[in-house]
Amino acid sequence: MAELTYREAVAAAIAQEMRRDENVVFLGEDIGAAGGVFKTTVGLLDEFGPVRVRDTPISEQAILGAAMGAAMTGLRPIAEIMFSDFLAVCWDIVANQMAKARYMTDGQVSVPLVVRTANGGGSRFGAQHSQSVENWAMTIPGIKVVAPSTPSDVKGLFAAAVRDDNPVLFFEQKSLYASKGEVPEGDYVEDLGKAKILREGNDLTIVALALMVPRALEAADRLEKDDGISATVLDLRSLVPLDTQTILTEVAKTGRLVTVEENPRLCGWGAEISSIVAEEMFYELDGPIVRITTPHIPLASADHLEDLMIPSVNRIYDEIRRAFS
Amino acid sequence: MAKKPGNKSYQVDLANDDIGEEVRINLFRLQLECRHVEQRANDLFLQNLIKGTSHLGLGQEAIAAGFAGAMESDDYTFCTYRGHNHTLARGASMTGILGELMGRECGLLGGKGGSMHLTSVEHGAMGSYAIIGAHLPIAVGAAWSSQYRGSSQVTVCFFGDGTTNIGAFHEALNMAQIWKLPVVFVCENNLYMEYTPIGNVTAVENPAADRAGAYGLESIIVDGNDADEVYRVAKKAITKARDGQGPSLIEAKTYRYSGHSRADPGDYRPDGELESWLERDPVKSYRQRLIDFGFPNQEIDLLEQEVLDRVDQATETAKNSPPPSEEAIVTDVWADGGSSWRN
Amino acid sequence: MNVIMPQLGETVEEGTVSIWHKKVGDTVVAGENLFDVSTDKVEMEIPASTSGELLEILVQEGETVAIGVTLAIISDGSKANEELVSATSEGEKNSSNTRSQSTNRSRIAKEKINKRDSKGNPLSPVVRRLLADNNISPDDLNGSGSGGRITRGDVLSYLNNNLANTSNGQKIVPFDSVRKLTAEHMVRSKAISPHVLQAVEVDYFSVNRARMLLGKAWKEQYGFSLTYLPFIAKAYCQVIKDFPRINAHVVDESLILFDKVNLGIAVDLDFQGLVVPVIKNADDKSVADLAKEIWSLSDKARNKKLVPDEMAGGTYTISNSGTFGSLITAPVINQPQVAILSTDGVKKRPVVLESDMGDSIAIRPVGVLAQSFDHRAIDGAYSAAFLKRIRDYLQDEDWDIDLN
Question: Where are the domains of chain A?
């Protein structure tokens, strides 16, 4: 085990996979010489050289298009889209091309690639650089969607994403880059599509993702200490494939579901989870499902305003306490 | 030898024939196959056996044939939704193509892709793409892959005049040039961007050739209706790419006989335009070319009959093939053949 | 939910419904006997697995159907729009009164459970389901949720405490179905058979030597330890040939003697009850085979994977009380068998060894074998002779077993 920051875990994961398989190549803007604008790819150009680690022009469509073409013809590319908001610029390649190529060609083609991107807010970058868009990816059939909350999950899930033969969108939360955690050393790979139970409780089940996970844990501690409300906290880790069974099992145990989402309200990932639970676990529910989300408003940039909009520990605590009073 | 596009007085120089009999026969056969399959697709559409829409390449056969004739079997082709000719010219089966258009089980894509997505990976036909411009960066990726692997495969990427105005065109050309990738970009300028004359919406006269300079590339224009000309230009660009000398951009002037798609009768064309281009029909011209080079009429007729027979046979086989089974719906979203998003 | 013909044994493909204990319209409570099934091997009482109303009987008494066929349908109470079927002594369908509020507790499960209780507080889906499944009225409960809302926890606590008050240091734990069954069998057995207890002490020196020699290799190969029990079982199988009236059943003032030994081994299910799987044709088996089969049946028993076939047809039972080191046990006979043997704790004791050169003291592993026998069928002398022979066999036999 080693203690790494979330950003160090990104570089470690990429390096692990590039060492393991020479077909893994990496392209993106400022990822090589500069080590990435978030310093997530430091040291990779030195270790693997400019043929395998390519700095690209500002050409999101070409970056993802080239990744797809290379994936179709024998390579296993990793492509970086600097800010997840920029996925909108090359969304055609994600939604129309990568997701559908295998299906439309009746299995002739496969697209084994990973698109990694810095997602979410909390860094005061303003509305066009702070969005949480993993729910966009969730809506496209044919794309796998991963969003780790800890450095060890970064390493393990990224390795799984590279080794998966399908297009995977890997959402790193930019406000978590400095967070630290224990990361297993050596070859480490987790499973996609497996949620993790981080805390067991009796009164409610909180389902959270990425940045919302540590905040949900903190709120759960406070709820236990101050109000005697005991919560299970589930880190979803992947939206597709979705670990539906763990969600249903944990909700059945407590009878209450709360989702904590960084997405803006409409069609955030929690809406789908709520729908599944309401449909398949209705007779175990002891009260209404509660969704805690960012409001359906573009993110303001002033730090005070941004902190009020993205669910904070206090807001999570308050909304749950209110739902249980 | 002066050879102007559409010049009827083409001089035959048997002594300096850089193309040769074998290639010529092949180029002719490819054009015949393209013509007759597309013609048949048109007929089947009128019989309501092909549903939806079709983008036919009637009139543009020489470009598909010229390039296919110049490519190796493991080179890659990327083309647009007007891609029946290109997919067929790389060797995909007629039954597969007609079957796919009719939505049958024997279709190249099992009935799941349709006319606009014809793909035959075993023949290097890496897909037909329905979003304008999307496949240019994808083609760049395939070229990057062969460069990385050192395989000397070349990627040829076909698109229309309209594509030269979309963002992905510019991103792809820039990236191909800076990385010196083995990709040949071929613009089939058939004068119309969907229903609009291309000249009305493009800042330069030759939509592709006049932009080559912006990417440090040579401006290359070719008569897209002369398979020999296309072949020569193709050979040169493909060899350059294979030798590691980087990409090329070629603008092939041609014309399409049908409307943009089946829904379009092409009424926006000025009177006489279609007729004047029909006189320079690539298949008709190439038949004459062969005669000029001494091929007996009888052999040519036999060749055409053989192609027609094959088209008939393919049509019957495809007609007799059943529609895809319901199980096909849930297969092959993921690489393991499955489609489930949850446990 | 559908009541189906259960799987009664590995080779059993069909069963006959012999008796229905409930009729259409009756309330069924989970755990109570619903019907009896007979096959050529076994006669079984089958309890209901859910509570509800018996809506329909599809297979009548005397009919034979294949395993898995639906025999009857029980409503599960969560369907709120069911018609009331009267379970009162009047016995008539009372459809005009279906919507009226009834205080008759037995009707509650069938009544449409309202979305709110009488105080107007909402009843959540899980609360409504639990109330319906368990025939409880919301008025019986106090809600601890906001505004006095009845929560899931409230219903579960209520169910745990049943109707008793728990304020004076008592806790009432009702018998579950296994306990109830066991209680019935024990009372019945003691009522039927005059039990006599008789015991011998056995010096397990010889057995133990064989155990020690083989022990480590056995454990490595099979993953479990070689205990005294298979040796005792072997001894029984050999000795019983000369004492046929012990390998027998008492039925209607007759003894039914059996050629083969079907040896029942009592297994404790983690203090939650007893079950007795049977080793068929034990007399054909070696010590090694017996050991393996004892282990496998015990494992299945603990994982609730025994089928009724594996519990039927026993001719004698051994109850291994000795795991916890008991001195002596007077076991209860497994009807209709003639006797039952308890193997009690083996402990190092000083024993007197007689020899031509005088008596000496040795330390030997000694344990009691205690048999309860039915005095209707046999007498003390017969039983004592049998026990003596078992002891001699265990002590004198040259235990030479191989791992297989």
Answer: 2-183, 196-323
